[in-house]
Every structure is written in structure tokens, then in C-alpha cells.
Amino acid sequence: MKYADLHVHTHYSDSTFSPEEVLSAAEGKALSAIAICDHDTTDGVEPCIRIGDTKGIEIISGIELTVEKPDAEIHILGYFIDWKLEWLQKKLKAIQDGRIDRIYKMLEKLKLEGVNIEAADVFDIAGKGSVGRLHLARAILKSGAVKSFREVFEKYLGFGRPCYSPNINFEPKEAIEMVIEAGGVPVVAHPGIMRKDEYIKELAGYGLKGIEVYHTDHNNSTTRHYEELAKSMGLLMTGGSDCHGAGKGRVLIGTVRVPYEMVEKLKEAAGRAG
Ligand code: AMP
Ligand code: ZN
Ligand code: FE
Ligand code: FE
After folding, report:
1. What is the number of the ligand 1 atom nearest to the C-alpha of 244?
2. How far is it, in rounded angstroms, from Cα 29 to Cα 159?
3. How many CB atoms are located within 10 Å of the residue 259 CB?
4. Closest alpha carbon to 191 in 228, 165, 152
5. Which helix H or strand E contains 7, and what residues bound it?
6. pLDDT digit string (tens) for 77-92?
7. What is the DSSP letter of 28?
8. Which listed site, 24, 76, 156, 223, has its alpha carbon 20 to 30 Å from 107?
9. Which ligand lies nearest the alpha carbon of 153?
10. With a 6 A CB cut-off, is 132 part of the ligand 1 pocket?
């Protein structure tokens, strides 16, 4: 059997792993393919393809976009997007710039809560990629203000918590259309975290093609629930570990995987010959 892990981050967003480290960690995990799905950037795709070629691991170009509803944060994965498109890179750059402004907003809110973090600290941790809450969380942890990631998100940075700030306004319809226009297949990421199935129905109306049924944060009953929902809606069932290197403690790559057949189905959906 051939397997694929369809949700992996690199240090171009908030994983601690470089492309070299991602591919080294993937070796020995019996993975034939991995999808690089960084937050709002595709910069990790090309370097991973180069290294994957030398190791016989197929790299699927991907992305993870964030859109927001008043009561939910929705992540949209885009598989097989053409990352070389100029308009796409322009849009991503605008979103990445928005992420920088957002860090300053969250730092202001943290200050009001008595947590003083230097912006430079956060940007140092982030390196040159797409900056986000996991980088900020690491800076807060380093300062000693909290004891665990869990505490940082529960107290300050989680969706709806006092120091949370949204990304630039991006409608679900726009995100789905952006993936499709870039030649990709839109899939809703880890719906078990948001648990707002009505939004999946809405996304399907815009052209959503799949549900990430298998995910690190889905327990058995959540997984069964989304298997049923995907079947009843006629959507593909993808899955991946959402590995962030050592960024969330344990290295997760390969711990959630799907049969390689799913890659073929995604290729078909993207209009590519298998
Ligand atoms: P951002 O794209 O900047 O909004 O950050 C998203 C990252 O923060 C993802 O990697 C999430 O896994 C992580 N994250 C968001 N909420 C939580 C939470 N409640 N606990 C742990 N990590 C979280
Ligand atoms: Zn992340
Ligand atoms: Fe996500
Ligand atoms: Fe992710």
C-alpha cells in the first residue's frame, strides 16, 4: 500500500522544520506523497519538490487559507494549486503583509493584559515566512508569562479570546474561488475543530470539493461523523497530520495518512491526468 500525508507545514509558515527537515522526517514513514500546505504561502513547495525528487517522495503543492465568520475560524486547503501564477503570489503577499499588521495588533492587546513582548522577538522566531499566532505563542512562552501552548491559546490567542485579532477580511467564497482559479482543489481543513457543519454546506455551494476527515485533532467519533457527512454530500475525504515540526511538541508527520488513491482522486478533481 502507498500512503500520503496531505497536511504538512514548513518553516515558511509556522513549522519549525525546513524543507530538508520535513523530508528527512518523512523518510522511513512509508509515505509516497506529502502535501505542503503552509498558511498563506507557497514558498515551501519548490524547495520540497527539489528534495523530494532525490528521495522518491512526491510533493503536492498546497496552501492553507484562513477565513472568518463571526463565530468561527475556517481553514481552507488548496491542493495542486499552480504556485507560479503571478496574481496568486500578489494576493498571498497582501495576506502576508496583513499578518504582520495583525501581530502588532495582538501585541497591543497583550500589553493591556500585562504581557509585554517585543515585536522583534516574534519576527525573529518567524524567520522570513508567513508570521502567525504560533510564532507569537512561542515568544510569549519564552517570556515566561505562561507555562504551556495550551495556556497561551486559552488565555490569550485562541479564536474569540481577548488578544485574538482577525486576519485581513477574506470571504469564504473568495478563498474557494481563489483556489479554483489557481487550478487547485478546495478542501475544508479539520472541521472537527470548528464544529459548524452549516458552513460546510455553504462552502459546498461555492465549489468545495472535499473534507479533511482524518486529522490529528479528530477523535474517532468526529472522524466517523465527517466520513458520513462527506459521503452524504458527495465530497472527497482527505487527511493529514498537520505536522508543524517540533512547533507543537511531537513531530506528527505520517501519524495521519490516507491511501495514495486519494491523491489520484485529487489529481482528477484538479483536472490533471493521473
Ligand atoms: P494563524 O494562522 O496565525 O491564525 O495561526 C494558526 C495556528 O495557530 C495554527 O497552526 C493552529 O494550529 C494554531 N492554533 C490556533 N488555535 C489554537 C489553539 N486553540 N490551540 C493550539 N494551537 C492553536
Ligand atoms: Zn499552523
Ligand atoms: Fe489549520
Ligand atoms: Fe495546518
Report:
1. 10
2. 33
3. 14
4. 228
5. strand 3-8
6. 999 999 999 999 999 9
7. T
8. 76
9. 1
10. yes
- Ligand 1 centroid from CA 149, angstroms: 10
- The span from the CA of 117 to the CA of 129, in Å, is 20
Q: Which ligand is nearest to the CA of 66?
A: 1
Task: Tell me which of 247 and 43 has the higher pLDDT.
Answer: 43
Query: Which ligand has an atom closest to residue 248 CA?
Result: 1
Which ligand 1 atom sits nearest the alpha carbon of residue 134?
A: 8
64, 125, 133: residue to mutate for ligand 1 pocket, most atoms within 8 A of CB: 133
Half-sphere exposure of 182 (CA within 13 A, CB side): 29
- Rounded-to-integer distance, Cα 65 and Cα 67, Å: 7
User: What are the residues whose beta carbons fall under 8 Å from the beta carbon of 235, sequence distance 6 or more?
Assistant: 204, 208, 209, 210, 211, 229
Q: In degrees rounded to 5, what are phi and psi of residue 11? A: -75, 0
Distance (Å, whole) CA 238 – CA 262: 7
> What is residue 153's DSSP assignment?
I
Q: Is 215 in the pocket of ligand 1 (CB under 6 A)?
A: no
Does any ligand 1 atom lie closer than 6 A to the CB of residue 133? yes
pTM of the model as a whole: 0.97
Contacts of 48 (CB under 8 A, 6+ apart): 10, 19, 22, 23, 34, 36, 59
**pLDDT by residue (tens digit) across 89-139?**
999 999 999 999 999 999 999 999 999 999 999 999 999 889 999 999 999
